[in-house]
Every structure is written in structure tokens, then in C-alpha cells.
Specification:
By secondary structure, the protein is an all-beta fold. The protein has four domains: about 1-240, TolB, C-terminal domain (Neuraminidase); about 255-405, no CATH class; about 410-530, no CATH class; about 535-615, Immunoglobulin-like (Sandwich). About 0% of the residues lie in helices and about 45% in strands. It is built from two helices and 54 strands. The chain has a five-stranded mixed beta sheet with strand order 41-39-38-43-46, with no helix packed on it.
Length: about 625
Amino acid sequence: MAFDYETGNLVDTAFIRSDFPRLQSPKHAIQRSVSEALVSDQLSDVVQLYDTTGFFKKTFAPAGGLNNNILDNIRGIAYKPNGNLLVTNASGSAANRIQEFDTAGVFVGSFISTVVNSPFSILYRDSDILIGNSSGTNKILRFDFNGNYIASFTTTSLNFIQQLIKNPNGNIVACEFSGTGTGLKIFDSTGVLLTTLTGATGNRGVFRLPNGNYMTTNSSGVYEIDATTGSLVRSIYLGGNLHYIDVFDKSTGTLITANMNYNQGWNLFSVPLLTSNMSVNQITPNRTSFVFHYNQRYNIVDTLQNGKAYWVKYNSNTTVPISGNLPLENVIPVNQGWNLVGPFNTIIPVSAITTNPPNIIVSLFYGFNNGYAPASELLPSKGYWVKVNQNGSLIFPTQLIKSSVDLKSFKELEQLGKITITDQIGNIATLYITSNQFDNSKYQLPPVPPADVFDVRFSTDNLVENVESPKIININSATYPLSITAKGVNLEIKDVFDGKIFNTQLKDGKTIKISDERIKQLLISNMELFEEIQLNPNHPNPFNSSTNISFYIPDSRYIEIKVYDMLGREVEVLVNEIKSKGTHTVIFNGDKLSSGTYFIKMKVDDKIFLRKVLLLK
């Protein structure tokens, strides 16, 4: 049955028509795409796929059809953030489990296999998952995003919980189906019972209407309940034995569209939308390689998931349009170690990403564009590496936010000596040299890419190394000749065969070429750093009102920084004094200036440094 989202009024008594024996006791229907719905059936023990005309398309899960070793006596269903389907299962050889299926309906395994007791419902929150149960002592349980038990949600004694929903303020509404406390139980986000609404009892399903009241179902019909007093507002429909309520968005017309832009060569990509077909053949047609994901090692995959990233190769630049819906959640599970992840259909500043548990990220984020490079933002359809120190989740912001990129790590790198290696077809990698102590784990590079992917790194797998001792650089899958450029450092560079093939000095600002394809490793030694004066890009730019301007000097110097307009007129003096060694930041406030382009001019001794900034009001 279908009801109007705004009013709760009945609009269709047969949104999906009666279809016995496929549907014997349908429990929960959820939207799969703009024209499809999945329906879990408690008696037929499968999840069926229907289109919105009521036409049966196929048994979705298990993909091979009925299998009571996997599903037996199923109830509520939900999507994981990666698009996989979770199904509550109460009986059979897989009793008291939450079973997981991929986006093609293929059984993945038991997502939760402990503590639950006759599970009925699944509710994702920002930092955990709630599972409602009909048996056992604790009826609502908390799990992390990897399916590990955390604790009971509430100390309130409950009898039989069916559907759970979350209110905008974070309160939880639970359907108490039976017992002396039957009704809609309202809890705060920590599990404290606030009230029980009893205008209708024997509750199975619940939905919060836009007016703030609740729709709820039981074995006799559908009702509207006052959210404050709990009194019955009206009987919306009588005569049906009804179960869970979920939203189906028929505002079709307008599926979200996106382009998958693949570059010639190898790509790290992710899928920003949940499409009706997540197969590699649909998302990566005409590719010239297998599609690889990483989970402790590289694996070939046939089906893609939102939130994960993959390797693929193309012979030419290729654009593949896709359409679908935004994934329902903003959480990406990650495992201890390195993970390949991807954002959804918005740009995500790295500084806006949080984790559960907190502070588990121990690396930079790395993207790939003809070589690994640190990333300050995650771009839709691109893939990124990140390392965490324990199992947990990345939590993306729930709304589009203005980028506030934390540039600290990038400023640190800009002040180091650089060795840049470029091959004949434009693959490029930059390694860094420092004379200071540094955090090895923070600057560790991701795993080596699949075979045939360009990669340059120190033999230690670090992005940064110390100047004190010789270092080996490994070069994989490069097209010769190679160009090697030094910036801020002098060094000796030779092959690892004691310099018998190649042995030379590389000076700051100079470039050398290596044509001999036998050279896959380089030994660098006798490194001498030259710290440079730097006027860094201002942030933000463009800006409204004020922007931060930072600069670095290798020793104490007299610094002059002035602002000029397009006509060359001086409009403000920001610095006019001696500054000590290190990085300094000043604020340029444009409150009294009109919109337009301005120039930041820094003078140090006889050197001039310029930056163009844009003020928008």
C-alpha cells in the first residue's frame, strides 16, 4: 500500500499487488531505485524485487533463490553505506543473525552473528547501528559499523520490538508490539525512555509525518498519533494486517546523474551514486584490465560498492555517464591498515572527515593521477588511500560544506627538499628530503599498485626521508627515458650496481635524464639541503572579508609584505619588521575594500615574491 508522504493519506491500495506465493507475509519494503523496491517476506524466506507497476522482476536475495541455510524467518531489511543489503534472520541454521548480500543479491556472509535474539529491525545512526529484537533480555542492541557488539541501547524493560526510526532531533522511536507497555516508545539518543504513546497499540511500523505526528501500523490498520499527547488523531485505514513503513521517492524524473571520467592508463575510481546496476561491466565498459579492490591484498571484483575505490585501466580517455540515487548513509567502514575509499557525489574536504572511534586515521589521504600524491579534498568518482590504526568508520559530513582544508601537512612538505621523477608518458612522482625528525607513519606511502602501474618510492615505503644516510629509490612500470629534477637539495645519484651504469651529481634546480631501462633502483647520497624562502598560497582564495597569508623564512630576516590593487596602488602594509626563522601567518582583512583582484607582494632582501588574491563580497 502507498500513502502520501506529506499528509499520510492513502493513495494506492496495491502499490505492489498481491503475488502469492512469492509474497505470503511481506514485512518490509524499501526503495532500491527510482522504479524498483525490495520486499522481505517472513514466510517465503527471500527478498523479492518488484518494479513500481507491481511487476515481479526476480528473487533478489539470496541471488540463487530460496536457501534456508542462509535465510529463514526474515523481517526488517536495510542498506549498508556501501549499498549492500542487510537482512534480519530469526530461524534455521543461520538463526539470530544479520545476513549480508552484495548489490547483486549474492550472499556475502553474516554481518552480525552474536548477541541478537530473534532480530526484527535495523537502524543506522551516525556512530552505531541499532538492532531491535523480539526475544532475549535486552531488546535494542548497539553495534559498530563492522558488526561488533557495543552494548545494550537502553536499560528499560521491553517485551517485543519491531520497527525502529530516528527523529531529526536524534530521539529513537521503537514499536513495542506486545506486553503491558505496548505503544510507541520514545527514547532520547542515549536510551533514556521519555514517554510511551498509546493512541494505537500492538505497533509494528512507524513513520514521522512532516506535521510532527506519527503514522503507525498494527494488525488492524494504519493510524495517526499525536506526537505530544499520544492520543489517536485518526484511523487512516482499517482492515489490513500491516507491517513496516518506509519512504519511496517517486519524484522520478530526476535521478541524479554523474560522469565517470577515466584517464588513459590506470585510474583509482569510486562510484558516487547507487545505481540499479553496480556491475563492473556497467560502470567500467570497454576497460582494458580487470577491476581490482584492496583488502590486505588485491582482488578482482565483478560488482562495485559505494564508498569503496578500485583500480582500472583504459587505453584512452573515457567518459561513462551514470544515474542513480545518493547512498543512504554517510559512513564508510574501514579495516585496520590501508583502505581504498571513495566519496559520494560531493567534494569532501579531508579536514571535514571524522571517524568512529575518534582519531584512527594515521596517514595522509593519497589519490592517483599518473602517480600517487597527497590529497586535501576527495573528489566524486575518484578513489583514495587512507590508513587507520584499528577497525572503524569514516564519517563524511551530512551536508555540503565550504572547504576548510587543513594545509599543515602540505606546508610541511613544501618546505622540504624535493626529488621529482617523470617518465616519458607523463607519469610523475615527488619524494621529499628533510634534515629534521619526522613522523614516519604519517608519511608512509600506500601499498604498491597492481603490476604495470607507475610507482616511485623510497625502499622504506616512505614519502619523506632524512638527509643523513644514503637512500634507495624504487621505480616500477615507468616508460623511459626518465627525467629527474631536484629542488632545494644537491645530491649524488647512481644506480645500485655501484654506479657502473649511471653515476652523477644532481644540483638544486637541475634536471638529468636516464635512458637505460635496466635502472629500476637509484641510490642517492651526499644530500645537501637548501631551505627556500616561500610565500604560500593564501587561504581561502577567493575570500570574503579576510584571508590567511603564510610565509616561510629559513633564518631571521627583515620582511616587508604589502597589498596592491590592479592599478598598482598600495592599499595596505601587512608586515614591515624582522621575523624569526619559521612559518608565519598574517591576516589580510578586506572589509574596507571593494571586490576585485589584489596582489600580495613580499620583499626579502633583494627578492620579490607575488601572489594574486581575489576578494568577493
